[in-house]
């Protein structure tokens, strides 16, 4: 599913006429919220801007400034130096209450993306270049529609000092907070804390809306902040968060340690350090870092990480106890939805579907649009046999935020249903994974793990193995070990795969997919008793762990009686 080594950017002459017309029509008619020209003409992913546009002048009267209003990318300072007083790189913002949103606009754009993706399966080059750009448009449309629904009663933009407070990011609408920061920075362009907070807001927006095009904007904001005030804490904390979001975990650890040398009690740096150590596979160090963070700065961000470190080591009871404490301490809707959603995922991993649904319900009561809870609820419904509700729920998720995991899950739900047209629908989802990966890579995200996991089952197995090897070379975690083991298996290299599959399960992390992969590889290498035991264990732990994988596990057990 990853781009082949021989793929080149398509020329216009190579693109099928019908798909090209669809691409151009959508670009002209749909993208009123971001720069349209470059993406459509060059085949490069366009930036998907989630804040609403405010320009009311005709396009030809805006002047040159209209084309340079975005936050500059990492290598080019188009907004001036630390000594100038130019406005921040953004168009003026207005309340979402003033924006007219076309009903079902996100559905229409997603449909257009899928039409181009379908054409792209026949013309590979077009799919990789064009679908990534259209996916950016689709994510923008969904973000605008959701933002308008949530923020229709937003007050006027604040320009006071409160606009630069990091706490503002957790106090209400993220889009409104970004608008406030942008307005403030237009009048105070030398406010380095304001630039750092804007960068953090962009990182959070990318995370919550699945939009990696925000990362270059975040990087530019942090660079601007550090240019004004070198080594300021907020910007360094932000760079650690950005590096982690881009899967650059060594860099994230370096930035976090740099902050902690100056301020040992920085909550963001303490959390970034735990995250980086976990994602580098340094679990013993991560556990020590979690203990230290809990002693220095107890609170929701630290509690959730402390719980995950324990879950990775098989201590589920401690993980749940800590998360329940975190939920009791949570006050903002964002914290409540995050912690409750994490509790739901923990219950799901143990096959406790009733508890999972209850936890996801608590998350959605706090934020009805919280993506992980919507996705988790649909996954749980599928495991309980309510495939219709599961498909409807997962369709809602991918119509708003088409990320790799829900796209694959929806594709597998279509495959497991097997109705007329479902195979084509499934292929559409898998093609969109390629589009997201292309968009992520274009914005500096290391997407090798996503590539390996998706392509191993639903794409080019050679690409899966190449990506898994690359990710393993960077970091040794249970997730990368599992991805490499499975990529080796689907390439027929089970003897090589077996040590990695065993390493993926060595920490006693309760993950039925990992155990299923191990059992399958053991059967393939002649370890029949061990293979059967692990397949049975996976199904006992979480009998609905995958719409397709669970069925294959049962079939393998039957075949080896």
Describe the 3D structure.
The two termini are 35 Å apart. The chain has 561 residues and is mainly alpha-helical. Helix 11 (283-296) packs antiparallel against helix 12 (300-312). It is 66% helix and 0% strand. 54% of the residues are buried. It has helices spanning 17-30, 37-42, 105-122, 124-150, 174-187, 192-209, 214-228, 233-245, 249-262, 267-279, 283-296, 300-312, 316-329, 333-349, 353-366, 371-383, 387-400, 404-417, 422-442, 448-458, 461-474, 478-490, 494-504, 512-524, 528-541, 549-559. The protein is globular and about 70 Å long. The chain has 26 helices and no strands. Pfam families: TPR_16. This is Tetratricopeptide repeat protein.
List the defining traits of the structure above.
561 residues, mainly alpha, 26 helices, 66% helix, 0% strand, TPR repeat, TPR_rpt, TPR-like_helical_dom_sf
């Amino acid at each position: 599913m990853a781009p082949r080594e021989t793929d080149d950017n398509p020329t216009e002459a190579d693109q099928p006429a019908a798909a090209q017309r669809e691409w151009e029509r959508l670009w002209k008619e749909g993208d009123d919220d971001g720069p349209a020209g470059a993406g459509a003409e060059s085949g490069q992913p366009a930036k998907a801007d989630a804040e609403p546009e405010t320009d009311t002048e005709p396009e030809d009267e805006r002047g040159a400034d209209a084309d340079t209003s975005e936050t500059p990318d990492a290598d080019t300072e188009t907004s001036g130096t630390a000594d100038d007083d130019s406005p921040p790189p953004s168009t003026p913002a207005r309340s979402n209450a003033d924006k007219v949103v076309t009903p079902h606009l996100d559905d229409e754009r997603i449909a257009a993306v899928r039409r181009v993706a379908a054409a792209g399966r026949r013309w590979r080059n077009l799919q990789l270049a064009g679908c990534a750009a259209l996916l950016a448009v689709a994510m923008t449309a969904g973000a605008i529609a959701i933002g308008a629904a949530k923020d229709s009663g937003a007050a006027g933009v604040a320009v006071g000092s409160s606009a630069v407070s990091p706490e503002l990011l957790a106090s209400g609408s993220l889009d409104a907070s970004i608008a406030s920061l942008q307005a403030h920075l237009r009048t105070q362009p030398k406010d380095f804390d304001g630039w750092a907070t804007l960068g953090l807001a962009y990182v959070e927006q990318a995370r919550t809306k699945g939009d990696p095009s925000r990362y270059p904007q975040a990087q530019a904001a942090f660079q601007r902040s550090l240019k004004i005030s070198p080594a300021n804490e907020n910007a360094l904390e932000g760079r650690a968060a950005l590096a982690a979001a881009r899967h650059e975990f060594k860099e994230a650890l370096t930035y976090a340690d740099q902050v902690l040398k100056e301020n040992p009690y920085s909550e963001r740096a303490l959390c970034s350090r735990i995250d980086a150590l976990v994602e580098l596979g340094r679990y013993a160090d991560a556990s020590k870092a979690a203990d230290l963070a809990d002693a220095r700065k107890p609170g929701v961000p630290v509690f959730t990480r402390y719980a995950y470190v324990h879950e990775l080591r098989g201590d589920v009871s401690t993980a749940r106890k800590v998360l329940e404490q975190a939920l009791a301490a949570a006050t903002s809707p964002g914290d409540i939805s995050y912690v409750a959603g994490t509790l739901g995922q923990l219950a799901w991993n143990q096959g406790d579907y009733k508890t999972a649904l209850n936890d996801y319900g608590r998350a959605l009561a706090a934020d009805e649009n919280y993506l992980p809870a919507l996705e988790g609820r649909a996954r749980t419904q599928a495991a309980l046999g309510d495939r219709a509700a599961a498909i409807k729920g997962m369709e809602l998720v991918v119509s708003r935020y088409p990320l790799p995991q829900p796209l694959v899950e929806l594709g597998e739900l279509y495959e497991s249903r097997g109705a007329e047209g479902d195979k084509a629908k499934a292929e559409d989802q898998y093609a969109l994974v390629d589009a997201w990966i292309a968009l992520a890579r274009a914005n500096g995200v290391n997407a090798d793990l996503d590539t390996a996991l998706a392509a191993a089952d639903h794409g080019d197995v050679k690409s899966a193995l190449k990506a898994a090897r690359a990710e393993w070379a960077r970091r040794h975690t249970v997730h990368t070990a599992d991805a490499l083991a499975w990529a080796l298996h689907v390439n027929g290299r089970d003897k090589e795969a077996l040590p990695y599959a065993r390493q993926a399960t060595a920490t006693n992390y309760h993950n039925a997919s990992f155990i299923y992969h191990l059992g399958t590889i053991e059967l393939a290498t002649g370890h029949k008793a061990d293979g059967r035991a692990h397949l049975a264990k996976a199904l006992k732990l979480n009998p609905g762990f995958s719409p397709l994988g669970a069925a294959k596990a049962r079939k393998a057990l039957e075949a080896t009686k």
